[in-house]
Amino acid sequence: MKYMIIGAGGTGGILGYKLTEGGKDVTLIARGAHLNAMKAQGLTIHQIWNDQTVVLPVKAAAEEEYGEQPDVILVCVKGYSLDSVYPLICRVSGPETVVIPILNIFGTGGKMQEQLPGILVTDGCIYVSANMEAPGVLKQHGEICRVVFGVRNENEYRPVLKEIAGDFEECGICGILSHNIQRDALQKFSYVSPIGAVGLYYNCAAGDVQKEGEPREMFKAMIREIVALAEAMGIHFGQDLVAVNLKILSDLAPEATTSMQRDVMAGKPSEIDGLIYQVVRLGREYGVPVPQYEKVAANL
Predict the structure, then answer these.
(1) DSSP structure string for 242-293
(2) Is the C-alpha dihedral spanning 8, 162, 274, 252 positive or negative?
(3) Alpha-carbon distance 26 to 13, whole Å?
(4) Cβ burial, residue 287 (10 Å; 0-12/13-18/19+)
(5) What kind and span of H or E run contains 202?
(6) Rounded CA gap, 42 and 45, in Å?
(7) Which residues of 228-249 are buried (b: 16+ CB within 10 A; e: fewer)?
């Protein structure tokens, strides 16, 4: 199958690297210095958990250069850039193209589907920790690379989704075709939202949350607030998400930070609305107390 990845940062770049390394037909859509560097010298990944650097030639193009019809489009932009990708998706998609959004913000797939009638848009999320270090260079903070995706309604299922999951697995990506993607996407949100919020509030890195102390206690409390919200929404996890998310956290390099935290600290646009303020709004909508989120929101 032919893959197109929109966005070549810490999410899209790592997926593009792994799919390319695994022999798949992949084009990374990027722009500016990052695009030029990938065209000239390939994509470089600094794996800081084992102090290794790997370089791989990749197919990269500006969106106006891309003239193929992909079977699968992986959308790996930030939430605030989502509106900018619709024209490209509409231009290149065929009747069987599958769009998989891989963003941090819960509910993205449903939002995109409204804008892309006639194209199958699943929901999806990823467990990975990486960021752009320089044009053409990504820093990956841990080995984890897991993509969870699936349709929101059973009648939208297509056999090609299982093929996509198989391609992921062949390329060293843990690909999980979910039968309850709203639950699984919210589970991912229960990690990325609290860790980003805590990182911002305390201006700290993963190592500060890995050890006992106030940041770790806030992280756990915010996870419990997400679980309470999920219960009010009729979503039941059936496992201890505090323990699950602490295990994910323990596998990261101590210096790792979140993209939202880095963006806010650099004065750039960020996903703070979807990752923090949205939880406060949902708490009010469902009548669920979220005091830790209220505290962070008030501070920010």
Answers:
(1) HHHHHHHHHTS-TT---HHHHHHHTT---SHIIIIIHHHHHHHHHT---HHH
(2) negative
(3) 11
(4) exposed
(5) helix 181-202
(6) 10
(7) ebbeeeebebeeebbeebbebb
What is the pLDDT at residue 4? 98
Give the global pTM. Answer: 0.88
Look at residue 258 in the predicted model and tell me its pLDDT: 87
How far is the C-alpha of 270 from the C-alpha of 292, rounded, in Å?
Answer: 20
Q: Could you say which residues of the chain have pLDDT below 50? A: none
Strand partners of residue 131: 139
The CA distances from residue 260 to 18, 30, 63, in Å, are: 24, 20, 25
CA distance 239 to 241: 6
pLDDT at 253: 83
Q: Residue 13: helix, strand or coil by DSSP?
A: helix
**What is the rounded CA–CA span in Å between residue 51 and residue 241?**
30
